[in-house]
Design brief:
Distance between the termini of chain B: 27 Å
Number of helices of chain A: 7
Largest sheet of chain B: 4 strands, parallel
Structural class of chain A: alpha+beta
Order of helices and strands of chain B: HHHHEHHEHEHEHHEEEHEEHEHHHHH
Order of helices and strands of chain A: HHHHEHHEEEH
Helix content of chain A: 40-55%
Strand order of the largest sheet of chain A: 2-1-3-4
Oligomer: heterodimer
Strand order of the largest sheet of chain B: 3-2-1-4
CATH architecture of the largest domain in chain A: 3-Layer(aba) Sandwich
Structural class of chain B: alpha/beta
Number of strands of chain B: 10
Largest sheet of chain A: 4 strands, mixed
Shape of chain B: globular
Shape of chain A: globular
Distance between the termini of chain A: 28 Å
CATH superfamily of the largest domain in chain A: Glutaredoxin
Strand content of chain A: 5-15%
Strand content of chain B: 5-15%
Number of domains of chain A: 2
Number of strands of chain A: 4
Radius of gyration of chain A: 18 Å
Amino acid sequence: MSSESKTIFSPQLAARFDALVEKYPVRRSALIPMLLYAQDEVGYLSDAVIAEVARRIGITELDVRNVASYYSLLRFKPAGEYNIQVCTNICCMLRGGYEILERFREELGVDPKGVTADGLFSLEEVECIGACSWAPAIQVNYDFHDELKPDLVPGIIDGYRSKAKAKGKNKNA
Amino acid sequence: MPRLVSHPDEFKIVSRRFGQGAAQIDRYIELGGYESAKKCLAQGPEWIINEMKASNLRGRGGAGFSTGMKWSFVPKQSAKPKYVLVNGDESEPGTCKDHLIFLHDPHAVIEGTIIAGLAIGAKVGFIYLRGEYRYLLEIVEKAVADAYLKGFLGKKIFGTDTDFDVITQTGAGAYEVGEESALMESLEGKRGIPRIKPPFPAVVGLYGGPTIINNAETIATVPHIIAMGATAYSDVGTQRNGGTRLFCLSGHVEHPGVYELPMGYNLKKMIYEVGGGVAGGRKLKAVVPGGSSTPVLLPEEIENLGMDFDQVGKAGSMLGSGGVVVIDDQTCMVEFALRTIGFYQHESCGWCIPCREGTDWLKKSLTRFHAGFGTAADISNMQYLAENMLGRTFCPLGDAAAMPTIAFLKKFRKEFEDHLDGKPCPYAKEGVPQLTVV
């Protein structure tokens, strides 16, 4: 049972948060991981997420928003189920990062910061993701794909499409 | 999955266990793991700090400060708890070495954290990974849990009377948090803005307690130094630059990858022999020697350049974080400068005006320049802006944007002039999208 009587999170995440706030010398240190893990589950930092995280830590919602708005991985509106983050920083740029971005744009039919109509994919141009020696690289949610070529792009998209389909089947089963 | 590379010139210390399954604790122990921590428990803090000083290990995050000295600054007596903080926020473009350490040898980071804690008398260590490294955080968290099960962490570690805890933490996407005081702010659940110094973290750090902050590579090196001996480690490198370094070769090089080479290794050799030369047999135009904030070097400047903190400093650049970015002769340096500065503009935390406004103005000027609308006055304006950002900010992010800008303008002035007055970019390739606004 979570310490929160009215939690919007799954029982697993609620239990994880109960432990997380006790893990650090100061409760507030749990804030950033909590926001990130909440976003992983809910999809974005909704008003309800912010309210509950604020309550759990014991700070104001304004405090939470003030911190959350600083960090580029945290978002206030939904992304696609698979958020495709294409690095175009120098090392990726030198090895064709912009061509990779362009190919994703063509294949998905959305511009950076856009979400596909079915809500499955979103596209983002991002700064260095720490895969410089294996450039060009992207992250789909937290998964890395490196040493890319534009022709590998359709296969990556198809891979995630099948993954989503399989997940949908499991849900119905 | 990041590909591992190797070259006969490598001297493997930190990367010794890469690719050998050492993320599993039993395998790590089989490969000699946790022996250094036991030795340090027996020898005591003074001995550890003396070993670190004698090893000539210098901070691998970029500043190159002596690790032993840093540890010795922590007061012995402190009313507040002391902390060890491992900086795995690796975000400097060109740098991907900690990525491999966390993936292949997370226990080396944990063991190094324990040793650092013993040296300064801390009972808690934090390992902070950038938010993008989620899969690596899971590997590190598994390793930490395994170390607790073995009794290497927690109460009475290794059956002694010493307690030591390790807490992992994730960031959420902010380059600035790699700066030590901003990292402490972030770990305290705040916006990652830098603190004024002094007081230095060794005196007033995390939660107000004395804190040492070291780069993940620095910490992962510590157990190896204890195992092989400070003198043996120091002998591998050059004077005042002990040991080896993980160099991340990237960009237009035939065999990019992370190579562990002795400090002082010749840069030209690194590119042409270790890296197999410029990709496609093209000509070298420039090299960024230590991550995107370090001033660019020309081919003639790397002829006899040994890659250690002092030699690269003398050559007018910095060894930085070990990210060596190779640039061929087909690259537009104005575009490269724009992409470099676009990053710092995006990452400036906005706390100090010279950095917040300076990076923005630089990016705007470079964008206009690259689009062909630059004027001769823009070149001197950018120079003026960059020079006035230097040293005028709380943290080095302002310098990190200003220093490369000054070098680009000085060393590639002609390329800037080639973009003047509506001339199209001479390097534009058909069918390749041009960088416009980042």
